[in-house]
Amino acid sequence: xxxxxxxxxxxxxxxxxxxxxxxxxxxxxxxxxxxxxxxxxxxxxxxxxxxxxxxxxxxxxxxxxxxxxxxxxxxxxxxxxxxxxxxxxxxxxxxxxxxxxxxxxxxxxxxxxxxxxxxxxxxxxxxxxxxxxxxxxxxxxxxxxxxxxxxxxxxxxxxxxxxxxxxxxxxxxxxxxxxxxxxxxxxxxxxxxxxxxxxxxxxxxxxxxxxxxxxxxxxxxxxxxxxxxxxxxxxxxxxxxxxxxxxxxxxxxxxxxxxxxxxxxxxxxxxxxxxxxxxxxxxxxxxxxxxxxxxxxxxxxxxxxxxxxxxxxxxxxxxxxxxxxxxxxxxxxxxxxxxxxxxxxxxxxxxxxxxxxxxxxxxxxxxxxxxxxxxxxxxxxxxxxxxxxxxxxxxxxxxxxxxxxxxxxxxxxxxxxxxxxxxxxxxxxxxxxxxxxxxxxxxxxxxxxxxxxxxxxxxxxxxxxxxxxxxxxxxxxxxxxxxxxxxxxxxxxxxxxxxxxxxxxxxxxxxxxxxxxxxxxxxxxxxxxxxxxxxxxxxxxxxxxxxxxxxxxxxx
Length: 556
Known about the structure:
By secondary structure, the protein is α/β, with parallel strands linked by helices. A hairpin with a 4-residue loop joins strand 14 and strand 15 (263-266).
């Protein structure tokens, strides 16, 4: 059966029952139909003094066309924890409509390790992304209106930094001109669109601890410079109150369940290749209050999602993971070893060993953070026992425990070995440490990540990037202390998607640097990465349909 057919046969519990199983009270739950709900601020406040559960981060090797199953493993691990008698809550990101209708697909897991209702989660869900899009574009409208109405702040229309967003892949919107028509239609200028999940508003929502923190961060957004090079913030336009009003419900975490009724909190959805790639701080902290084990994930490979989770989210929120699960597959290793996609089903130990250098790099990188690691070998039906044994040997040789996971085919039962290994890892001492201190310069932070995580020899900067760094540093020491969020291809440790395995002898190329003063980090754009993806030659949208009864088909 397809994922959507498996999900359609799931025996879901009313979400109010799932909430009660976590100790959430009736007046702390806001229903969005029978199987979705938001958890109110009352629950967060009531549980604030409760002891935190263990935090487990799930990450992966660099993605390949063969698929690694990181979200599937995360969901399956949560279900397996329940099988061995451990109370767990899964904390995930919300899927973006861009990949859903594009090429990657959704983010609700797969097979018998899914969160449900998967159609709702992968489409409009509870409307959070629409609210983020509206808040973002309200600020854009207020910028252009201010210029139209006399421009008392003296905004330089050539130095407007804040752009519009939409949550679909639309390459035609990467560069646009607005204000065309006539005097009543605004002042003509160049603008750009990003995908919603790459926006600063998304990052702010995911990092904000409260409504008051949300408003402060929204007000801090650097939107432009004046003609005499003074910064203009959203607070100068008095936009933060209205933006926060649009986000007052979106900031509340969403509660759903897995196919096996394990509770799952899904909230926020920044991409890890162009944003910080983690679900919201509020959702993660809530999961830690509600369960003995909170299982969350960070997007794409550990060089992106895990690095940003550890160096940005944990830095801001004071989080300390007890264990890290690194997902890999036999197929990914053979692909990194030079085997073509159609031939990955054939046993090839030599290619596996050659391609294992990508896995080994991620193990070495994660060891830098001082957290116990368990490698999850996500098993596919074509994997041989000899190949699985080879992966286990490689893990052992590089100081990482490992377990085979078969949650796609068997649900929670297929993840029991992994769950037991993760529980053992959580009992070990975690000596979590950040990769770099706050007082490194902006360039020192970029180069620390490039050399220590990507394995680069150094960093090349375009002139525009150097000027942007100089502009940020001129705003004050506070901004130079921000962590960096590097936008880079997910397919390679380098900034060239074609360099597989463990590239050597390369430099990272920085072409643009942006200050996200509201989010509290500096975005560094490398290589050819785009903040507005395009649709593929045959988009997934062509296969999606709905019948007269409202039944959706073609959604994976």
